[in-house]
Amino acid sequence: MELKLFQVESKITITKLKPAYDYRFSVFIVSSDDEETLSHPLQAVFMTSNDPPTDFAAVKVTPISALLTWTPPISPTSAYHLVVTSKDHIIIKADLPSASGEQTTMSYQLEGLSEGTEFTASLKSIPLENESLVPATEVKIKFQTTFPAPEGLSLKPGVKDLKITFTHSHSNEITFKETAS
Fold this sequence. Notes:
Radius of gyration: 27 Å
Order of helices and strands: EEEEEEEEEEE
Distance between the termini: 66 Å
């Protein structure tokens, strides 16, 4: 690609570059008298950063577990760095292997979580050796584990829906009301 800039222009933005690629840029000064006369080039090589994983989500969340899922980035990846925290406590800190072959979705099962607790999960792809020195952007999500269902709960015959309203009081009682369809 060749771009011509006039004297007043000193900055240009180039978009739609691929992640984890080397791009070589050369800048020449063109004589105003003769457009065929060029200076010696000023050259630089820039590497674009790795793209981050996408579609990062917590699914199948229960009182004590959650499944983290994501789509691998386009750029070559050797592993993923995952950190899960609750308030200021690190729950999980792990380096996970990358996808094998053409795997379109990755996942990590979290177990032994505390019920009704908000968690923050951050994920970053780690580039292959010798591929990119520029790490990908970290992606973060927040999710909250659920509370367990009340024990001994049963529906009367003919009731198809159940509306439960949680009310927190000093005794932590839970009240619910059955509603007929």
